[in-house]
Amino acid sequence: MADSLIVAFGEMLIDFVPDTSGVSLAESTGFLKAPGGAPANVACAITKLGGKAAFVGKVGDDEFGHMLINILKKNGVNTDGVCVDTHARTALAFVTLRKDGEREFMFYRNPSADMLLKDSELNMGLIKQAKIFHYGSISLISEPCKSAHMAAMKAAKDAGILLSYDPNVRLPLWPSPDAAREGIKSIWNEADFIKVSDDEVQFLTQGDSDKEDVVLSLWHDNLKLLVVTDGEKGCRYFTKKFKGKVTGFSVKAVDTTGAGDAFVGSFLLSMAKDMSIFEDEAKLKEALSFANACGAICTTQKGAIPALPAESDALELIKSKAK
């Protein structure tokens, strides 16, 4: 099943990243334009590792939108599910990189093309070919995109496709923190696989993400696997039968943008190749270690998509760190 299709649904946009780290947007003198949007990053992460992926979403009929479609194509991502909106612009985000490589966002979306995807524009034929259907929560923020998201998710579920959810909390895009928590949790129980960061656990539960009972308050019985990413420390995993943690790789981080997407893309590819990883703890740990390596490599270069690793890069990092 090496050619199993993974379909990623949601937003694709342009990130403007300061050419100097550790300065505010106001102090920045120049910006690098970097293609972004978590679901699109995930699709590119999969193809970069030799997998098969499609992206479903909408961009504006502008230079940036056409540039994004070309980037997907260049990266070998199927674009049959990408629509173009003649009236709205492609979304933009200005990203501030703090000295530690962490980031802050300022978004231009009022409304942007990705928010205007209608359920009638969904390429259902493509979605139903997937082995895994992956999505975030930004597509839940406003209509008509929310209805399109729900329709795509239902079609995938009805077709017996595995649902993968990475909420990717971006607070500035929601009306309020409570609206974000409510929106993100509104589809929580649909997913077969959920990946959350330690910060997101803290935000969603308003508890301490280091505590296992806090993490497990996010568990639901339809879940096959819950993974919490802990940055360079690695990740924790929880299934019905077992739980544990997998150590990460410490590298010199320049830009953490896209690291979570590299992790998710890598892991979804392992999952698509062999669904038995939900039951086989040794296989699961191996796949998560590989995903940790992919996430780590992604932080060593600016921008998300250009920094996504090939399989050989990840294997090399794992080998170099093996005691």
From TrEMBL:
Keywords tagged on the record: ATP-binding, Carbohydrate metabolism, Kinase, Nucleotide-binding, Transferase
PANTHER family for this protein: FRUCTOKINASE-5-RELATED (PTHR43085:SF6), HEXOKINASE FAMILY MEMBER (PTHR43085)
Source taxonomy: Eukaryota, Viridiplantae, Streptophyta, Embryophyta, Tracheophyta
Gene source species: Rubus argutus
InterPro entries: Carboh/pur_kinase_PfkB_CS, PfkB_Carbo_kinase, PfkB_dom, Ribokinase-like
Keyword ATP-binding included in the entry's annotation: yes
Family label: Belongs to the carbohydrate kinase PfkB family.
Domain Carbohydrate kinase PfkB: 5-310
One Pfam family recorded for the sequence: PfkB
Catalysed reactions, semicolon-separated: D-fructose + ATP = D-fructose 6-phosphate + ADP + H(+)
GO CC terms, sorted: cytosol
Pathway: Glycan biosynthesis; starch biosynthesis
EC number assigned by the record: 2.7.1.4
GO annotation, biological process: fructose metabolic process
Name the UniProt record assigns to this protein: fructokinase
